[in-house]
Each structure stands twice: as C-alpha cells, then as structure tokens.
Amino acid sequence: MSTSEISATEKATFHRDGVVVLHDVLSPQWLDRLADAIKKNLADPGPFGKNHAEEGGAYFGDYVNWQRIPDFINVAKSGPLGQVAGELMGAKQVQFFHEHVLVKEPGNSSATPWHQDMPYYCVDCPKTVSLWVPLDPVGRSESLNFLKGSHLGKTTYMPRRFKTLEPLEGDTTQYQAFPPIDEYSDKIASYAVNPGDVLAFDFHTLHDAPANPTDTRRRAISFRFVGENARYVTRPHDVSPPFPELGLKLYMNDPLPEDWFPTVWEKPGARHS
Asked: Which of 117, 161, 177, 229 is least surrounded by CB atoms within 10 angstroms?
C-alpha cells in the first residue's frame, strides 16, 4: 500500500472517529525487519524494558530504543509509516515521538485498562497519531478496543496506573473523570488485523487492550508521531516515557529537538509554503 491509496474515506474516518484501520501498509520485507528488531529488543532490553505480567504468560514492554535498534525509526523514514502518519494527520511535517514494543505471550492474563495516551506524554500538539503495527494475526477479541469520537474536543482524562487504576503520582486535578464507557457500547469498535495492517488512532482516543488467552504470541509495535507545532510540556505528575530521566532538558512550550525527536517526513513543498 502507498499513501496515495489511503482514501479520502479513511482519512475522514480517522478525523471523525479518532481511529481507522489500514490494510496492507507494510511489505513482508519491513515486517521481517521489525520482527528482527523485536527479537533484538527482547534479547537486550533498554532501561525501561520489563515483564509487566504478575502471573500467566509474560507481557514484555519497552520503548525509546530506536537509536540502538535503527529499524524502529527506519520504518518511518525509509519505510511508509512517516508518510502514512503525515497523510492521516494532514500534517506538513512529522516528528517521531517514540516507539513502544508490546509482546503478549500465549496465556497472558494482563489486560490494559481504558486510557488515552496524551496525558501520559510530555508533549502537546494539535496533530497526533499512533500507528499500532501487529507482527502476528490478531482477532477482534484480542485486539484493541476504541471509543469512537472520544478524541473530539481534545478532553484529557485522568492518567492512571494500569495495575491499580490509581492516578499517577503527582497533581492530576486538572483532568476529567472517565466517562461511563459501558454506556457507550454502540461507539466501541475493535478490528481484526493481520501483519502488514495498521491501527491508527489519535493520542486523545480512549482505548484498552485485552489479555492474550490464545495459544499464539501477540507481537506489536506502537509508533507515536506528532505534526508541526509540537511543544514540550512539563506535567505536574509522572510521564511515560520518562524522557527527563533519559537526560532530556527542556522548558515548557519548547519545540521538540531533532536529536531526540527526528523529522521523518515532510510534505513536498512544505518548507516553501
């Protein structure tokens, strides 16, 4: 799939619902390279890599390893994901925020509760997208669930610890309480996806992820992107990824520096428009 094949309907769906599924985005060659990148990450985790499962099958998560495992960013720069992100957001410029490896082994019992990504991040931007890339077939019952339209208005809801559902440490009084999601069952969507497909969603879209009770591994990588005018935000609570702990030194509303958040795509002619 090339971005010219992203239809106007798919773009409109992304902006209306906050989520859209795109099929056959990644070639087998890119899938092989990403599978090898995950294998390297599992063998040599970064400082934040760990097994999040307390029982049952393992649930490995890790992020911000693109500098030492280059294919995590190459798939955005040399591969299609940077342009896909730009086309969906309607952006002139796309910066790579970070990658997040998520591997749920067979029999894993760790579900990810409802949340939205934005309040966990040290960034603010009017144009955002996460591209969730599966490396294994994922049925609807094991796939992410999304509350369609929950990104509209850019409301931010209480960021919580996934295991305890307690608010993040620090001041979280600025956030809204979660809406009664069960009352919006008609707006909840999930999608069966195969390797090569992409689930694209806004940083403000509420979503969750079930456990993996199947007998097959579920490997995925979530690639986070922001458009032009992205700014660093200091939050009065913990953030994830904890970029300040990694050595990032910025002030409120600073632009995102290229050495930490590289530009991976620009719309042709954007610098001259």
From this structure: 177
